[in-house]
Amino acid sequence: MSIYLPGCGTPPAPTCQDCPTKELGRVRGFWLQKVGFTFINIEDPTEWDTAICNQDVYVFPYANGTAEQAEQLSDGYGNVPQTLDSYEFTLNLHEPQYQNNIPFWNFVKRSNQFLVGYKTQTLIHLGSVAAMIFPKAPVSADVKSKIDINLMIKFVQEDLIVPVLAPAGIFDVCVDC
Hints:
The chain has 177 residues and is mainly beta. The chain contains 2 helices and 9 strands. It has one domain (29-165).
């Protein structure tokens, strides 16, 4: 009798470069994508334009924030104390369109029908499962502070996200239809 254990088998070959290109941090933009929508080529700006105009994708090119992954562990078996089951992704984002976007965020917070993706320096990263979105608009006591929409977005998926090149022009300006 054979038993299949996940994670067994031959891993893909790792890459080794003497002078690797660095990807700089900070979430610089993000998007929400309807769960039922799939890009044919996520790097194609024309396909993005169509998705935006069809309201399958909502892009926020002006944002900043962080993306973190927390390991989700379960009890192991035999001599293995724990196993890695999945990752809980948490994005903490700041979106500057405070007054204008409140109705949008009030709608989205009640939905579990959106994937979330984010852009770093040159790469985009798209989650594979629906996200929970928690918008807030805190007001500080500092009279010179700015009010932004603060978002905490969470989702859990088995694997880390494989990034791809960001489509040209999509995260540089607001796209009009």
